Amino acid sequence: MNDVPRCDRCNRKLKDPDSLSRGMGKTCYRKHQAYVEKFCISLFDADKKPKPQRQRKKREVAP
Ligand SMILES: [Zn+2]
Question: Ligand 1: distance of its center to the CA of 41 in Å?
């Protein structure tokens, strides 16, 4: 029972050899890759320049 390979993200059973080697399905692998890339890029950017999210100041607050 435990030998059934399942997707690491959605827990579905894996059939494709590619998916088996990755440990997750194609769709989940894409999402995973996109997430990793985004995360790594944001990490690299953090060294060079501040994140644009830091500009979340309450500008429209009237005094
Ligand atoms: Zn999946």
Answer: 24
Backbone angles phi, psi at 14, to 5 degrees: -100, 135
- CB neighbours of 18 closer than 8 A, spacing ≥ 6? 26
Model-level pTM?
0.55
Give the CA angle between residues 14, 8, 41 to the nearest 5°: 125
Q: Distance, CA 57 to ligand 1 centroid (Å)?
A: 38
Q: Tell me, in angstroms, the distance from the centre of ligand 1 to residue 37's CA.
A: 18
Average pLDDT in the chain: 81
CA of 6 from ligand 1 middle (Å) equals 8
47-63 pLDDT, tens per residue?
665 556 665 666 776 67
